[in-house]
Amino acid sequence: MNPSPAVAVTGLTVRHRRTVALDRLDLSLGPGVHGLLGPNGAGKTSLIRVLATVAAPSSGRVELLGGDVASHRDRTGVRRRLGYLPQDFGYYPSFTVREFVAYVAWLKELPADRVPAAVERAVERVGLADRIDARMKTLSGGMVRRAGIAQAIVNEPDLLLLDEPTAGLDPEQRVDFRELLRELGREATVVVSTHLVEDVAAACTDVALIEAGRLAFQGATDELTALGGESGAPDDSTTHAVERGYTAALRAHRASDVRTSGAHPKEALR
Amino acid sequence: MTAPRPEARPSPAPVPRHDPGPGPGPGPGPGPRHDSGPVPRHDPESAPRPGPGPEFAPDPGLAPRPGPGSPRPPWHVTDALALRYAEGSAPETDAWSLEKHVESCTACAARVSAAVRAGAAGPALAAVRAELLTSLGHRPAPVPVSAGAGGAAPSGSPLGRWARLWWTVGPALRGSWAVAVVLVVGGAFGLAHGAGFQGAGSLLLAVSPVLPLAGVAVSYGRHADPLYEITAATPSGGLRLLLTRTAAVLAVCVPLLTAGAALLPRVAGFPGAAAWLLPGLALTLAALALGSFVGCRAAAATLGGGWLLAVTGPLLAGPNAAGAGAAVLAPYFSGSAAQGGWAAAALACAALLVLRRRSFDHLEPR
């Protein structure tokens, strides 16, 4: 077992006023691409925000890349090695893509002389090289999303958090994006929050399924698929199998509800 | 291939270690070692190397003398050999010898380096060196890079000094707030000179402390900065970014508003042009401190609104005489008691801000 996973969360609770978004969640993630699945309102964005250090947990312990994010010094160190794409993000309309990405690189304290090359590489990896000097306000929604991914990966992060990154991408761009995800996941720990099961089937090595602030399932994508069982339908596909696994895991979690909250989630460190 | 740099070696002590190459013998054939070069110079001061080892013939045509304990004949790279090496026409064994020799002989390394740099490979070497230095975190030196193409700042680089300043100042100075400040000052001048309104100075003074508040409100936070959530996840986000942007706002406000107030027609008994500085600073710091609890926009709106109600409102409601304006403003601006109070308030807010500094590390409350 890896002694220090990139993400180690114990007893994480997040409250928004009266409502509980995350309820004593334990989660441990190592390198690879992790799909974060769950129904709307399950707490995916709350979890990503805590992992991105922009939201403070109400209680619980969060260790990222070996540092405790409750300490200011560790948090600053973690932030230099972090990439974060929020679900909704804005931009300065008059900035070009190059300026937008370079601005974030500057905020992430990349050495100034490494920034130009890092920016060009990041923009090229998301397939926006031909629009690098276009102003942000002239870009389509999918291009803005890709510029957002570029800013997240500009510092070659060890921990990359993407909240709904495929929203607004057309099918071809999605295929390219999943390829990029697999590439990034070879070295970094990538957490992708999504409601698209096919994203998980195509790009994620592991899945964490969240339901009502609790971890309903964690394991390899294959294991989730196996939970769905055989369908026998002639047009069955991987996506369908993952969908069935997703549904089966959710139902199993709801059935066992409170009782098994500590026993059901599997520690899958790799 | 490396371009040996003479400055890398502090001592030019020639230690002649002449290995002809990886082969076991001194050379593959009986032919002359230096087929066309002039006679290598002898260096009488070079130390002999004890022990057996392949040696280099001091004279062309002479067979090597492998003898245990025999003094090592000195040998140095001639200009002709360096030139042939640079253009790649030196025989392989000579090239080996040269490469081995320049590892330990500074003078020859310099000679070979100069020849190589002057040759066809020069530009490529310069480019490699510049790139290597850049990747190691050095500022590219102006000397070795050929002028033009690959300079320190490639065209389109957003990292110029001005670009960085532009980034630092934040959205306020790029947006309509800067326009608003200029309009306020210009409006006061228009009232004073165009309409002959005697109270223009007091009006400007009464509005001045609110302007930096507005600047802070449109610079930072969930509502003002579209990049807010992204910046919040970076090491430079939070209080540091807020303070740099506030400083930028004040750097625009303070000279513009003070000079504007000073240039307006003077009215007897009226507070000086700089009277707004301490109230403005106190209100700005109060907005930051309060902002750590409720967010910057709400804090600035509360304090700015309160100021407008308390000070600017009575001024507008009162009689339009210059003296009346001075009477309304005097309790807030005039006298050491008022100014001392603002200074104390500014200090208290700064202290509170220090205590609350970590609250800016996370997203502000909705």
UniProtKB/TrEMBL annotation, chain A:
The keyword Nucleotide-binding applies. PROSITE patterns: ABC_TRANSPORTER_2. GO terms for molecular function: ATP binding. InterPro entries: AAA+_ATPase, ABC_transporter-like_ATP-bd, P-loop_NTPase. Gene3D superfamilies: P-loop containing nucleotide triphosphate hydrolases. Pfam families: ABC_tran (PF00005). Keywords: ATP-binding, Nucleotide-binding, Transport. This is ABC transporter ATP-binding protein. Residues 7-237 form the ABC transporter domain. Belongs to the ABC transporter superfamily. The lineage of its organism: Bacteria, Bacillati, Actinomycetota, Actinomycetes, Kitasatosporales.
